[in-house]
Amino acid sequence: MRLGLRSSGTRLKRLVIVTLSLLIIYQIWPLKRMEKVQKPVRRLPTGNIIIDDNAGLIDSSEDEEASIYDDLYEPISKPVRGTYNPDTGNIEVPQVVNPIMIDDALRRLNMRPLRKNEDEQAEAAHFDFNGVRIEKHTKVKMSPIKHDLAFTSLIKENELSDLSVCKDMEYKPKQKIQHSDPISIGNDIPFEYVKEYLQKSGYAHMITKLNLKDMNKSDWYTLSGSATWLPDMGCYLMASRLMYAPKRRGSPVVSLIWMQLFDKEWNELLGRRIRYLGVTDEEVDEVLREVSLLGGRGKTTERRLDKISIKFPTVLDVPFVVKNDGTPLGPEDPRIISKGTGTNDTEPVILFNMLTDSKRRSMFAAFPLQKSTNGNKHKANILQFRHSGSSSLTIKAVEKNWVPFFENPYNPTKISFLYGVDPLVVFRCNLENGKCDKIQDDAKRIGASNGVHNHASKVVLRGGTNLMPVPQDKIRKLINDGDKSLPHLWVGFAKIHARNCGCGTSLYRPVMYILSKVGDAYNVDLMTQGLDFNMDVLEFDGEGTKCDENSPNVLIPNSIPFWDIKEKVHGLLGGKSSDRYDDFMGLTISEADRNVKLIFLNNVMNYIVGLYQSKYAQDSLTDIHSEYRQETSEIERCVMQQSFDYCKQYARDHS
C-alpha cells in the first residue's frame, strides 16, 4: 500500500514539473515563431515552386545559408495540444504531416521531392540516361583521332583469306572520330576530410600502417574516375579511387572510393545534397521540424539532414577486410551506372572489386542513395556478386574488370556484365541477391589464330568503361526495315595490356568497340587498335612523358558519362549521307594511375552508321544465324597484333 502511494506521489511530482516547464517555455519561447502563419510560396505561372539552384551549397555565404532555413518548414500555424504519458514522463505531441509542405521544403533545399508535380512527372517520363552535352560544345577544339585503325568482319561478303585476315578486316570509315584535348576534373584530394573519415570509421585504428599524424597529402592519388548522369537531379555523379601509397605506388596501404557531383558543364557541386531513396513522410517531417527550429548552418543541422540525405563530396562508406601484411585494402576500380527504380526516380549503382574474408578479390555493388539498413555500421548498402549455374566456366582467381550495362535502364531488375572481352563472356546478375548466371561463353568456339602474328600472346584485352547504348530510334533508321525486330547496339572502351613491347614494363591503352545483340547472341562487331588521343602520356612517376623502362606506361578508360545524339537536317544544312548526326560524347580517362581527365568525342554515331551500310552488315543485325558471328575472335587477335606494333612505334617516338 505504501509502495502504491509512493508511486502515485512520484507521478504527481513529474506532472507538476512538466506543467511548470511548459509554462516557462511558453513565456520564454518567441511567440512569433509559435503563432506565425505559413507564408505564401512564390510560384511560377504553371504552379511549380521556384527553386534556388544554390540552395545548400557550402560555398554560399553565411547570410545566404541562413536564409535557406528561414521559414523552411512550418507545418502548423499554432501549437498542437499534447498529451502527458505517465509511463515515460513525457509530453507527446502528435505530428501533423503535410505532404505538400514537405515537398516544398525539399525543393528549397535543392533535393528531389517525395512526390513529383505534373511538370516533373512529364519530365521523368522522358528521362535520358545518356546524359547531356555541355552548352559550349561548339567552341571546343576537335582533332581527328590518329592511329584509328579498326577491324570488323562486316565489310566482306566473301570468306576471309588465311594469309591476310587482318588486312581483309580493316575498317576505313568515311567519317573519322574527333577528340578534344583532355581537361582535368575532380583531382583535388580532400586530405583533411579523408583523415577525418579514417578516424571516424575506425580504419585508422584497425590498419597499423595508417598513421594520421605522419600522413602526407602527396602520398594520396586520385584515379579511375567513373561518372554517370542522374537525369532527375540534373547532375553527374563521379566515383573515383583514392589510393594511399606512402612508400611504393604498387603497394597501396588503403583504397577508398571518393564521390563527387558535377553540373552539366562539369563544375563541381560542393555541398549539394541528394535525398535518400525510400525515406518516408514521417522521417522527412521529423528532420525538417528539427532543422527549422535550429535554423542557419552548423554541424547539428548537418547531422540531422544526414538522416534523410547524403552530402557531396564524400567517401563511399563501405566495410572492408583489414589485413596488415601489405595486401591492398578497400574497394578498387569503381565503375558507375544509372538505372530507373520503377517510381520515376534514378538510382546510381557503383561496381567495384574488393578483397573478401576468403582472401579472394570479388566484385561488389554499392547503392549510395539507399539509406543504410539497421545495424549496418557503415552507411552504404553493398552486395557481393556470386556465380551460379556457371560450372563450365573457369572462374578467375581475381575478379575485376567486369563491364556493366543494362538491357533496359528504365526499370531493370538485373544488371548485365561482360565478364570477359577475349573471349566474349556475358553474365547477368540479380541486384537483389547478387546471383550471376552465365548467358554466353565464346571460349568453346575459339580456335587457332590463322594469319595472326604471335605477338598477340603478349597482349591481353581487359574491361574498361560501361557500355553506352545506341538509342533504339537510331537503330530503327539504321536498319530501314520496319518489319524486322530491332537488335541492341552498345559502344564501349576496353583496354589493351601489352607486355614487353618496348615502352616500359607494359603499356595500357583504350580501344573502342561496338557490341551487338541479335536475338540472344552477343558479338563484338568492331574494335579499334590502341588509342592515345594524340597524348604524350605521363610516366608512372609523373615527371615526364618518356617510356620509362622500369615502370608501366598507363592510359586507361574509365567511363562514358554522356552521349548526346542529334540528327542533322540535310535539306537545310546540306549534310551528306555519311554525315547524318551531330553527336557529342564524353570519356573519362586516367594517366599513370594519378589523375582523372575528361575527353570530348564527336562523329561516333556517324562512324557506326558507316559500319552498317553494306547489305551484309545490315543482314548481320537481323539474322541470328549469320555466320559472321564466328569471326569475333579474329577481330580481337588483329587488335592485339596491331596494338603490339603501336607500342613499338610509341616507344621509338618517346625514347
Descriptive key words:
disordered N terminus; 15 helices; 5-stranded mixed β-sheet; 655 residues; alpha+beta
How would you characterize the overall build of this protein?
This protein is α+β, with helices and mostly antiparallel strands. It is 22% helix and 27% strand. The protein contains 15 helices and 31 strands. The strands form 6 sheets. Strands 3, 4, 5, 6, 7, 23, 24, 25, 26, 27, 28, 29, 30 and 31 form a 14-stranded mixed β-sheet that branches. It has a 5-stranded mixed β-sheet with strand order 18-22-21-20-19, with no helix packed on it. It has a 4-stranded antiparallel β-sheet with strand order 8-9-10-13, covered by helices on one side. Helix 9 runs antiparallel to helix 10. The longest helix is centred in the first third of the chain and has 27 residues, at 2-28.
What share of the residues does DSSP label as strand, in percent?
Answer: 25-35%
Tell me roughly what share of residues is in helical segments. Answer: 10-25%
Number of helices: 15
Class by helix and strand content? alpha+beta
Number of strands: 31
- Spans where pLDDT lies below 50 across 5 or more residues: 1-6, 25-64, 447-454, 571-575
Distance between the termini: 99 Å
Q: What value does the Rg take, in angstroms?
A: 29 Å
Overall geometry comes to globular
- What's the mean pLDDT score? 83
- Largest beta sheet, briefly? 14 strands, mixed
Quick overview of this protein structure:
The chain has 15 helices and 31 strands. It is of the alpha+beta class and 655 residues long.
